[in-house]
Amino acid sequence: MASQSSQSPNAKSPNTLPVKEAYDQWAATYDTDGNFLQALDSIMMDELLPRFISLLPPSPSIADLGSGTARNTCRLLQIRDADVAGLDISEHMIEKGKSRCLDVWNSLPPSPRCHVLAFKPCDISSTEAVGFYLAKGVISTLVMEHIPLENFFAVCHKIMAPGGILLITNMHSDMGAISQAGFVDQATGEKIQTTSYAHTLSEVEEQIAAKNFEILWKEERAVSEGDLEKIGERGRKWVGVKVWFGMILRKLS
Q1: Which residues partner with 182 through β-bridges?
Q2: Which residues contact 216 (CB under 8 A, 6 or more apart)?
Q3: Residues 68 and 1: beta-carbon distance below 8 Å
């Protein structure tokens, strides 16, 4: 769920808030603040989601870990007879997500369409808080940045059935070395940021092996000049920089 808050030397220091408080405040403008990394992630999900869905069994249970305003949860509604759950720490983001999914749900014919859609506010960095799902598929997009890797993969392992498929995307560490999630409070003009980890691919792959997942696909992505028309001019300063990576994994046991 990363945005980009980089600072000039003379800029006022951002106010750093806990993740839940920051995203509760961000919910009102999260989908409209011109976040180029979200836009790039959506482009990549056009390719990744069909690949992810092709690996799932019929009538799968699927969790969106860190569902936010349901930017990608709503794409899961088209999966026939799926049980879809959106999990997020921010109740304000979930309320936005519910509204978005309702609009999509009402636009779909009864078949194909998912069977069940539910949202649960919970601390997605805690294995105790997320509960027990045995999901056949999990997606988590632009979320890992806010969670220690050991916690993130422990939660994924807990909520997934053996053989389950995990799709993850995240801010690349090359970008994370100089920027992190943040936004400007529209009411006060104050810059807000929250917990952000610049996880490297090698660190991610260590946890993948430790939690007994296997990598089926991975890709790193830099911004190109050709992307700017779709992701906006805010992406221009990142041309040539790796800003995104994605993976599809399988839980072995």
Answers
A1: 193
A2: 55, 165, 248, 249, 250
A3: yes
